[in-house]
Design brief:
The protein is α+β, with helices and mostly antiparallel strands and 122 residues long. The protein has helices at residues 11-39, 56-60, 79-88; strands spanning 67-71, 74-75, 94-100, 103-109. The longest helix is centred in the N-terminal third of the chain and has 29 residues, at 11-39.
């Protein structure tokens, strides 16, 4: 059994064995990144989920399933784009173009600034 042990191998074989681990990791990373870039990363769409009373979306007449396609003339493709436009507004009114069941509507929304308490869990 000693003849098959790592230390009993020639220097060349030991180098290949030691090199194989990192090379496999590198190869896996290349394959994984290629797959992610070919398939794409999932993103959230700018679609209204829940509309709570006493919130700006409810007051503006937005409904669950509405998809925001434009804010103040700027196209919105992802939820992150929508959140950024709202954050940058500073509480000023925003004009949303909304796709509701294949019909494009214009809706004016005045963002509401809220603060949340941060909880410390120990």
């Amino acid at each position: 059994m000693k003849a098959k042990s790592f230390l009993a191998q020639s220097v060349r074989k030991r180098l290949w064995i030691v090199f194989a681990g990192p090379f496999s990791n590198f190869l896996f990373a290349v394959v994984a990144f290629t797959a992610v870039f070919m398939v794409g990363m999932p993103t959230l769409l700018p679609e209204v989920g829940e509309v709570k009373p006493d919130y700006p979306a409810y007051q503006a007449g937005l409904k669950p399933g509405d998809r925001i396609v434009e804010v103040n003339g700027t196209a919105v493709k992802r939820w992150d784009d929508l959140a950024q436009r709202i954050h940058e507004s500073g509480g000023r009114p925003l004009l949303f173009k909304v796709d509701r069941e294949k019909e494009i509507l214009s809706v004016s929304v005045i963002p509401q600034v809220t603060t949340q308490k941060k909880s410390l869990r120990g």
